[in-house]
Amino acid sequence: MKGKGGKIVNILNDEDLNWQKVKIKGPVISNDASGLEGLIGLEVLEDYNLQSVLKGGEKHKTPKQKRKEERLAKKELKKKSVKPVEVKAPEPPKKRKVEEFVEESANESEDDDPKKRRKKKQQQKKMKKISDFEKIENADSDTEDEGNEEAGRFVKPPPPEEDLVDMQEVTDGWNGLGVPEPILRALAEKGFNSPTEIQSLSLPAAILGKKDILGAAETGSGKTLAFGIPILTGIMELKRKNIRSGIRKPNKIAKKKNRDDRDLTPPPEELVEVPMENSDSEEEKQEEEEIKEDEDYKPLYAVVLTPTRELAVQVRDHIIAAAKYTGITAVAVFGGLAQQKQERILKKGPEIVVATPGRFWELLQQENAHLSKIDDISFLVIDETDRMVEKGHFEELKLLMRRINFDETRKQSRQNFIFSATLSMVHDIPDHLHKRNASRKNKIAKITPGMKIHSLIEDLGISQPKIVDVTRSTQTAQTLTECRLICSIEQKDYYLYYFIQRHPGRTIVFCNSIDCVRRLSTLFGLLDCHPMALHANMMQKQRLKNLERFTKDDNGLLIATDVAARGLDIPRVQHVIHYQVPRTSENYVHRSGRTARANQNGITVMFMDPGEVKSYLKLCKTLDRTEDLPLFPVSDRHLSVVKERVDLAREVDKLELKNKRTSSEIGWLKKSAEEMDMIIDGFGEDGSDISDDEDAFQIERNRNTQQLNGKRIQLASLLQKPLFPRGFSFKYPTSSGKLDIPKMQFSEGQSVPGDNSAVKVLKKSIEDLKLAKKQRNKRK
Length: 780
Ligand SMILES: Nc1ncnc2c1ncn2[C@@H]1O[C@H](COP(=O)(O)OP(=O)(O)OP(=O)(O)O)[C@@H](O)[C@H]1O
Hints:
Bound molecules: adenosine-5'-triphosphate
Shape: globular
Distance between the termini: 114 Å
Mean pLDDT: 75
Strand order of the largest sheet: 6-7-5-8-9-4-10
């Protein structure tokens, strides 16, 4: 219907449409105060296209009006419980059926029979799960489309049909966990046919139940994807629903608490809204800008915090691999790299940020626009949590938690993931407290795993998480073989060289200090073992480079501090050597966990000198070990050759150091002489050496150099000879005193046969010892 002179006239084009005049009783020009003043006639239009009417109308609305109308429409729809009409591709009949069933069942009046009622409820629950899963599946295609429109880099052609069939077979093991198809596709590509234990227990609670997860599982058991998959699934869901944040609804208590808090605490000054008197056009302009900003808004959905930089890079890579077909972006932000570069990366608005807490907090303090959205994140992960909450280590984490937990509603609508291999590990009361306990009434009790977990939940402000603890009482991976090697401090270098030569393979050596890493790196460099160092005082670029080189070398040797102990997932690490007994049981578990990952075999050898026995016993107690770790067998016959080489390398190292010192002393002398305008013995007026024979410094330097060169040549010729000659048989002393001689055949150019691994050698030696013991007992 239109009135002449009304706005609607402009909306519809008179020439195209079939307007019909309406006969009105009485005068055509109304002037009778009946509310129709100015009306000169009526026309109706019955045959029209609603879309064009709406579109035409939209043109004339201010953004404010539009938003108001949208709000009203939504309210109206809510009242009527009608879903908003979306232009959708027709859904496959099966999926529609499931949803209809759920809705129908919900609307049906309840049956009188309680048994039937229960059965129906269970059925509804089951169908709801399937429906949720299918909704997520549907979301994938939506998300991909969004990605396609937003950025060309996310455009992915649909997989060919035969691929889909194959993929379904491959990913059968993931059924019923709520993992959407694009993620399944990426998992299939990686050959992950079924979930690991921690994944299958956490995924349904996280994806379908939207629960906080507190997960503890052995090292290398796939914890990264146990939080990575639910986060990616959740982001896909939020994107599909066009929701910026809040994966779950906050409860009423949270809302009330928030209201109460707000009533009690005055808002910070910067949050006080100052009413502005804007003219209409100014307001409209502002709103238009707001809308534009809205369109450009890139939400930060998830933040993952890790204790080390290398781990941040690795977690990002794992997430990116799983997100390959989702269009979701993830970046890593950590200290030691150019801040500007990281700011540039953040400007692109990645949906997931993996970070170390220090750099994250630093950027937040500088009001980085993207990271400031942390208040609105939907997912928070604290990886290696027990390490992250250690006193004095991560003050920034506490500050971050205080900030994001300030708003109770947001806190409640955020999903949290707390993971570590040693989350529930507890320690005995220290000796000094034991003594104090004896004289006290109020005794200090040992903390239980439950208490530890509870205190973590309290510290981090997490609500009723699902606790998934699948760690074994021994805390280490099932496929890990553990042993020790007793020797003096002096002998440790010999045994390390022996081990590396005798058992080639990717090896990580852990030390308790940076100095020790440096010394060993130099020594084993001289012994041609090509070690890579990793410690906190290295340049970050070098750290990453060394790690990369190590990863590429099948016989790589990494010498590191505990900075490499947690989380690093380097494929096919065969040996982990604790050059010193680790300071904590947690460090032992995490260091050892760099091998025997993802059900692969691996061995860990702890070198211990007599001074370390006490630490070793403490470690055994915490790790619930009732028996000593077995001793790793070493063939003493070859230690003399090993010793000769290592000693020579040590001498070369010493001489090199001496030479460097002499050179720097000469340099310092020259510089001082120049500054004081002096001529000193042994140098000409221009500071040049005048005679090598006359100057004491020069004489010493020359002698050193000669000696050094001689030793270098000697070492080089030794290193050219095979350490274990061809046809050599290893002999290990047994407890009976007899020598056990394993039969081995060495091929040309191969010092140790491939199948003679450290694990096998140890197992064989354990069997032999058992046999010898049996025989001894028989004789008795
Ligand atoms: N479902 C799966 N099937 C096969 N391999 C998997 C699966 N999930 C993860 N993995 C692989 O297992 C390895 C270990 O995973 P991840 O690094 O997540 O272990 P983790 O439990 O976090 O170990 P840590 O405690 O040392 O940090 C990785 O190489 C990962 O790609």
